[in-house]
Amino acid sequence: MFTYIVVLADRFEETERLRYIDLMRNSETQKRYFVKIMIVGKQSVGKTCLLRNLLKEDIKDVSSTDGIHIVIHRSKINIENGKWIIEKDRPKPKKSRDSIELHSMDNSKQLIMPSDLKSSDLFTATSISKRPSKNYARCGLWDFAGQKEFYCTHQAFLTSSAIYLVVADMKTNFVTEQQKKDTTEDDISSLSDFQEEDYVGFWFDSIHCYRTVDRRTDEESMNPPVIVVLTGKDRIGKNKLQGRQKYLDDQFSQLHGEQEKYQHYRHKYFISNTKDPDKIFEKIRKKISEIAQNMPLWGKSVPLKWILLEHLINVNRDNGKHFISFNDMIKMAKQPEIGILDKGEVSTFLHFQHEVGNIIFFKDIPDLIIIEPQWLANAFRCLVSDRFKIDDVHDVSPIDKRQISTDWTLLNNKGEISDLLINTLFKLKGGDYFLKQKKQLLEVMKKFDILVQIEGENVYIMPSMFPPSSISTVCMDIGIVKANCKTSWFCMKFKFLPPSFFSHLLVWLMNNYRPTRVKSGFALYRGICVFDLDSSRCEKLLMTMSIDTIALQIVSFSKQTQDLLEVCSGVRKDTRRKIVNLKKRYGIDLSYEQMFKCSDCTCHTEAFSLKQLIENTRNYCSHHQEAHESATIYSPWKVESTEGHIEKGMSKKHSQILQTCSEHMLENLYNVDMICEYLEVDDILTEEIRDTIKHKNGRQEQTKELLSILPFKGEKSYERFIEALKITENKNVAHYLEQQVGSTG
Prior knowledge:
Elements: H1 3-8, H2 14-26, E1 29-32, E2 34-41, H3 47-54, E3 68-78, E4 84-86, H4 97-103, H5 121-124, E5 136-144, H6 151-154, E6 163-169, H7 199-208, E7 226-231, H8 238-258, E8 265-270, H9 278-292, E9 300-303, H10 304-318, E10 323-324, H11 326-333, H12 343-355, E11 369-370, H13 373-384, H14 398-414, E12 416-418, H15 419-430, H16 433-436, H17 438-447, E13 452-453, E14 459-461, H18 471-478, E15 485-486, E16 489-494, H19 501-512, E17 514-515, E18 517-518, E19 521-522, E20 524-525, E21 528-532, E22 539-545, E23 549-556, H20 565-586, E24 592-597, E25 608-609, H21 610-615, E26 618-621, E27 626-629, H22 630-634, H23 652-660, H24 662-668, H25 672-681, H26 687-694, H27 699-709, H28 716-727, H29 731-743
Parallel strand pairs: 2-5, 2-6, 6-7, 7-8
Antiparallel strand pairs: 1-9, 3-4, 3-5, 10-11, 12-14, 13-14, 15-23, 16-23, 16-24, 17-21, 18-19, 20-21, 21-22, 22-23, 24-25, 26-27
Helix pairs in contact: 2-12, 13-15, 20-25, 24-27, 25-26, 25-28, 28-29
């Protein structure tokens, strides 16, 4: 009954989770069928042509996708035989896509509120877009732009509840190791350094971040599933085609067993978008249908009134509505056949719809519930796309036009975007329409950290547009030389880092510290930023991010290293806690290893693992070509060994409480992996122990393992466990345990 809770429970607030369980127990339910297909890959590999071929459309007028192109309600899938039904009678567009989008953005139409929802024409019409049925699944196809400048916006739409088509050119050796361009030793590598062959691995990594956390150990594959589509078959000579296909087959067979991320892989196809008959694309449709029926959320029950309210949203979307307010949603929910009168339930429904990717909803932006994702993608495109010409700007004074040109240069050189330029880009690409919702749209962009505002400044900052630099240049600009007091580097080496993660951490740091000023502006660059830790500006925090590593160093112009111990400890723990929060907020699963380097090493060169430093009192530094005392490298960051906790263990009273309440926790504890992460940050658990718990088979088995370990992890372990429960939406469980403490005296 509670399959949605198993899959999405960790993403719900505790009150919403409990409300959902109560609804499922006490209201009528119905199975929900929907499949979302995400088409991703490098620019100009045939993604849009593939989309059109799947929908049996002409590909003659295809142009490069600018942002994201979303097609919903054009097709549906028969859940009994997997056949696609495609709307064939749709009139052919006479204008370009951009023109159609700009002329279809009027949101002024009234809400459609049928008096008899179940029996109205809206439920019996023959159009695919207006015919919900228990026998068919709705189908949505998303075509993502391959240009790198759009990758910062893709995060708003990626989800674990989708099937991904990763598209690549057959000529590309896309599974080779990443090749670095010629760079100096202190350059920061980033997405811009990608070679042609890096993109398939990049997308597998990106998708792997959204993997299903509650994966069963006996499953051979991971969700979300990936189908690889290799295009350009017609451009390979017939005498070489068979050999090329075999070569790529062998590479995928090898990779599937070597790297966990390739366990998302299900199948691959070699196609020609221009030459292949429809029967080739029918095979892809059939495979998509087959995979969809094994997705975790396929055909799972939800409250019937939620099905009706979701359909009412879809009906209004089809009628031209792109966004509504919370008050509009309250009115829709009160429709007699839906009958949702509780605002809390409406909020839970909206959260659910947001998590499955049907809408964009934030509680603190109630006046902008986005029910048409294409509209938001178009708004993002206004500011992110590089398709701008000053000659296209009309109806402004010569002075304003010169200022707009200057501001556009500033955006491209420093990542700063003025209010005037925002207004210009919104108006140029959306008329006055986006300007009317400008305040709410900017708030949404700030939610995704696409835009940032520095307190007291009259410009926004767009991290994806930061200029490149090197660590040596940045240090020279600030005056950081060897004579200054520098701590060692604390590094977090990830298996993979999404491009947007730098922005997320940057925004958090900007909310706590002020960016350092240099002659050219703020010390904010692509992959490098510097902050003042206090108003004296004597202590500074350097953060760098490369392809797989985030590195932190503290520099002081007034103190010795030993005086920075508390500062370093606080920065390290706060950063690690923030990473846990970000993973929950964006529904991504990332893992990293703590690493350390001596102060003069470049920030992305070879580092020592914490385990290596603890096991060896001295370690050889290849940068200095001499041995360093291990303690001098990791001790500034106040790293504690969890082995010290074992000497005393948890108090007998607390240990008994955990044992007495174990059944209650097995039933009611969620976010177990996140609880373990917080305990690791607090040096209660080791990375190895947390990893062991994470790979247990399901939530309850993870809880059992955690409860068996905690009593042996020191006097502070119980207190830290209670704190972790409160942070991870387990307040009721924490309260239950605290009551037991009170009752036992």
